[in-house]
């Protein structure tokens, strides 16, 4: 009431498992500080949560109010995961967790601080996806990484050998010519086709 008396907005969330969550925004009407008139508006769930069809592939989102009361979940979470999340939210405002439900899942969650603006309990937003989908690109990269490294090393060795050979062949000709001069054989010239 104090917040409303000061002319500030208030947000209320009501979690109902059967019908989904309802979120209300309460705002005082008028300019007087001692007003008793308020506008109460229910926020359209489609506006808050968005269209599930537009979420990234294989990614689900859940929104929680306060101590992990479910406001919205695009794909229901197992009870054990909710219990694990509730125990973590007591100590941290962001983190990650994993669980197994037919396949391994990973999730990342973070708090949306609403108290300062709306005097409401923090909301927690959680993004989840199957572990195989999250790390699928990494697995494909790991499978191609070693062959690519092997081919790169082979190409580097071949280029290195070619460059060394280009340097050593003229040196071998100079060494052979030096030996002929030392043996006083001046009839054969030393031919080197390099400009250095």
SSE arrangement:
Layout: H1 2-5, E1 10-14, E2 22-28, E3 38-42, H2 45-49, E4 60-65, E5 69-73, H3 79-89, E6 94-101, E7 103-112, H4 115-118, E8 123-130, H5 131-134, H6 136-182
Describe the structure.
Strands 5-4-8-7-6 form a five-stranded antiparallel sheet. The chain has a three-stranded antiparallel sheet with strand order 1-2-3. By secondary structure, it is α+β, with helices and mostly antiparallel strands. It has helices at 2-5, 45-49, 79-89, 115-118, 131-134, 136-182, and strands at residues 10-14, 22-28, 38-42, 60-65, 69-73, 94-101, 103-112, 123-130. The model has no long low-confidence stretch (mean pLDDT 83). It has six helices and eight strands.
Shape: elongated
Q: Count up the helices.
A: 6
Strand proportion: 25-35%
Instruction: Tell me the total number of β-strands.
Output: 8
Give the N-to-C terminal Cα separation.
90 Å
Query: What integer is the average pLDDT?
Result: 83
Q: Order of SSEs, N→C?
A: HEEEHEEHEEHEHH
pLDDT under 50 segments (min length 5)?
none
- Characterize the main sheet: 5 strands, antiparallel
**Share of helical residues:** 25-40%
Structural class of the secondary elements? alpha+beta
Q: How much is the radius of gyration in Å? A: 36 Å
Strand order of the largest sheet: 5-4-8-7-6
């Amino acid at each position: 009431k104090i917040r409303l008396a000061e002319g500030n907005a208030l947000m209320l969330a009501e979690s109902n498992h059967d019908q989904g969550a309802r979120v209300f925004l309460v705002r005082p009407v008028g300019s007087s500080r001692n007003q008793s008139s308020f506008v109460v508006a229910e926020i359209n769930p489609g506006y808050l949560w968005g269209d599930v069809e537009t979420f990234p592939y294989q990614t689900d989102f859940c929104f929680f109010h306060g101590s992990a009361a479910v406001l919205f979940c695009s794909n229901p979470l197992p009870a054990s995961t909710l219990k694990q999340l509730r125990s973590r939210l007591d100590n941290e405002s962001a983190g990650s967790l994993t669980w197994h439900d037919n396949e391994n899942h990973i999730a990342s969650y973070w708090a949306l601080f609403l108290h300062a603006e709306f005097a409401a309990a923090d909301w927690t937003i959680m993004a989840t996806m199957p572990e195989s989908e999250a790390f699928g690109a990494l697995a494909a990269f790991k499978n191609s990484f070693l062959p690519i490294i092997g081919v790169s090393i082979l190409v580097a060795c071949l280029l290195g050998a070619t460059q060394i050979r280009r340097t050593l062949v003229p040196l071998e000709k100079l060494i052979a010519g030096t030996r002929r001069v030392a043996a006083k054989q001046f009839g054969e010239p030393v031919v080197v086709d390099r400009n250095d």
